[in-house]
Amino acid sequence: MQLKSKYLPIDQVLLKLQSWCAYQERSHFELDKKLAEFELTMDEKLEIVSSLITQNFINEERFAQTFTRGKFNIKKWGKVKIKAHLKMHKIPLKLINVAIAGIPDEDYLLTIEQLIKIKSKTVKGPNHLVKKQKVINYLISKGFEFDLIMDVYKLIEDENKI
After folding, report:
1. 75, burial (CB in 10 Å: exposed 0-12, middle 13-18, buried 19+)
2. What is the percentage of the chain residues whose pLDDT exceeds 70?
3. What is the pTM for the complete model shown?
4. I need a labelling partner for 37 at 20 to 30 A (CA). Which of 64, 108, 109, 128 fits?
């Protein structure tokens, strides 16, 4: 699908982008894609980006932290998947590590435990090992680390909660 570019005066573009950024946190990467929709010179794009950064509409650190919190708390993503998606947004590794470090370890392990228990109830398979592999694959697809999944799974099995 071809994006249609549109001509608007720079002040109108700036207002539209301020509103767009105020609606939810945006990354520089998303802003660059959005700017491509408008017929602007490179100088005008730089002026808009500079204005949005100066007025704190765009803040990569805030974006990384908000993105991480949202994906972990709402979508129940693991650190691996969150990190990969932040890299796709071209967030610097230093900011990614700070955002990931903001996830409390106890919450992270509790989420793994809850997901294992929930998925174990719905998974079907001919035997326990097949079901266990399906649960593990599910958590890996959610972005959790294999070692942590196995540690938590073993604890749950030892307590006979599955």
Report:
1. exposed
2. 95
3. 0.88
4. 64
